[in-house]
Request: fold
Amino acid sequence: LGGTETYGKFIPTPFPDLLEEMLDVQAANFGCVNAGPEVFVREDALLETVSQAAACVVQITGAQNLTNRYYSVHPRRNDRFTVPTPLLRALFRQVDFTEFSFTRHMIHMLQGHSADRFEVLAEELRSAWVARMKGLLGQLRCPTVLLWLADTPPPNPGKRADLSGEPMLVDREMVAAVKPLATTYVEMVPSAAARAKGAEGM
Reply:
């Protein structure tokens, strides 16, 4: 289960396929482009299927793509912003939310409007992410591997939200909060040489 990296957008052989070959096991890729935990938590039939596996790898995805007290996202295309709640309208009174179709665009614009007020939203997203990830891991009745797959290790919590890193808004403290619910945790940070290849082969 995971987002764009698990799905393998533009990648001839996504990592679940590589694991299948390396480990000589059958692997099912349930990655979903731009997914947050939301897309999996809502799918009872999928969770039932996954729970019958020998193990499930759960990729850590960003905190911006989930429904929360301030806005909702599309249930299957989690990067799609659907509607603000009265709380968000009150927090950013001067913002016209009809301008936004995607969460990433909205998040960056709101931080640009007011970094101080954005911290209120960022804290809500962090709390919602932890709750949703705990809910997802708690529903899986098989061994689980929690996977951090990013260019850098999880960052330490900061006073201001840093939107440049991926998975967006997820820090070391949040990962520590959900790790106990997984069977094991794997931190995969590609080497400088791998990152330097960029889009080669895509």
Q: What stands out?
A: Strands lie at 56-59, 71-73, 81-84, 144-149, 184-188. The CA atoms of residues 73 and 82 lie 5 Å apart.
